[in-house]
Amino acid sequence: MSTRIAFLKGHGTENDFVIVPDPENAIDLSTAAVAALCDRRAGIGGDGLLHIVRSAAHPEARAMAAEAEWFMDYRNGDGSIAEMCGNGARVFARYLLHAGLVPEGDLAIATRAGVKSVHLAKDGDITVGMGGARLPEGDVTVSVGERSWPARNVNMGNPHAVAFVDDLAHAGDLYSPPPFSPASAYPDGVNVEFVVDRGPRHVALRVHERGSGETRSCGTGACAVAVAAARRDGADPSVTGNPATYTVDVPGGRLVITEHPGGEIEMTGPAVIVAEGEIDPEWLENAAH
Ligand SMILES: N[C@@H](CCC[C@H](N)C(=O)O)C(=O)O
């Protein structure tokens, strides 16, 4: 008889994830298996998958094991690998607390973008220390239909193109990735955020995520937007010496982002576990190939 495979379902501001606890890294999660699990009709459904593995048991995380016991092996909904997921980091931490694997308080988690710090309370919002942003030089233009906008490159471990627009409806249906130029700008693809102002240091976004399509929220995207907005508003903390805090509304809720003068960015928002169950191992075996 095949071994039972547990899963959970969770979300952070409606960016939703299939959670697969696998401490010893024993489950074959091929690209096809992840895509099948994230399929909203034939699978469990999710924007992405959080594979929860002990750092010591994963070749990509072993070097971080002394600092962070648990590795977030994040995958996009199409099965592709991404460096970092901000909403995923909060849901990952929420799972560890829910499963009794860590206590409340401060926690370090390993990700492909390095070790991140999390402040975890039993109830309420979770804060993740997202590290600093990189702002690669280069002019990029993002288009939808007849309209096009200049976009700011912001790298939060993963790549983002941030475009300020007059109306979020101008982003269109976002079924497919918005074209950008030059085509060579993002050889590994990009997450594209469309942003409008809602008030002083308060913005709203829609996002097309690489590997997942339009989602209801993107944590790294919200950080990228806050960083781009601070430069646009003359509030760059490395220049002013003051932290810059932005409220970022996403279709699925609200995130609060603070960039500190030293460059560290903190993201605060909710993370919820909504269900637990078991994956049919035979189905997964067939889906994996
Ligand atoms: N939803 C995530 C970002 C997930 C990765 C992204 N799609 C990529 O490929 O870089 C977030 O909350 O940050």
Automatic annotation (TrEMBL):
Catalytic residues of the enzyme: 85, 85 (proton donor), 218 (proton acceptor)
Keyword NADP: no
Subcellular location: Cytoplasm
Gene Ontology molecular-function annotations: diaminopimelate epimerase activity
Site for Could be important to modulate the pK values of the two catalytic cysteine residues, residues: 160, 209
Binding site for substrate: 15, 76, 86-87, 158, 191, 209-210, 219-220
Predominant cellular place of this UniProt entry's protein: cytoplasm
E.C. designation(s): 5.1.1.7
Stretches of the chain forming a coiled coil according to its record: none
Function of the molecule: Catalyzes the stereoinversion of LL-2,6-diaminopimelate (L,L-DAP) to meso-diaminopimelate (meso-DAP), a precursor of L-lysine and an essential component of the bacterial peptidoglycan.
Oligomer and partners: Homodimer.
Protein name per its UniProtKB record: Diaminopimelate epimerase
